[in-house]
Specification:
alpha/beta, Nucleotidyltransferase, domain 5, 3 helices, 134 residues, single chain, 5 strands
Length: 134
């Protein structure tokens, strides 16, 4: 007994889910780029002046204290005695300097207070302590 020949249906690729994914990705990129722009005021055409100064970002220096208590200023080893002079070298005239303190949580509290005290003795320097989110 022979079965009648059935017509083979052609293979199809359903692209509707792929289009949905592409539009979702496109929406994500559009929304994320909208949040990247920094608006600090209303958009205006500013006048020109020959004595105008460019807005400068404060300079940053990273001070790291590892778990052994060793100090590093911008990844360069430094001693506690030379710390104040090393930070003074980084201070530029008419520009504020922010020292970001990255200290391991295992370091003795007294050591960190001593490091912070040395940094605070440098004039024109702001101190920030780096942490991580819980």
């Amino acid at each position: 007994m022979r079965l009648p020949q059935e017509a083979d249906t052609p293979a199809q690729i359903n692209i509707v889910p792929m289009i949905d994914v592409i539009f979702a990705i496109l929406t994500f990129f559009v929304m994320s780029t909208l949040f990247l722009t920094r608006s600090e005021g209303l958009p205006v055409n500013l006048p020109q002046a020959s004595t105008a100064k460019k807005a400068t970002q404060p300079a940053r220096v990273t001070l790291t204290v590892n778990k052994d208590g060793k100090l590093f200023l911008n990844k360069q080893p430094i001693t506690l005695d030379k710390l104040e002079a090393g930070v003074k070298e980084k201070v530029k005239p008419e520009q504020s300097l922010t020292v970001v303190l990255n200290a391991d949580e295992a370091v003795n509290h007294g050591k960190i207070v001593e490091v912070m005290d040395r940094v605070r003795q440098v004039e024109g320097v702001k101190l920030a302590i780096a942490t991580r989110k819980k």
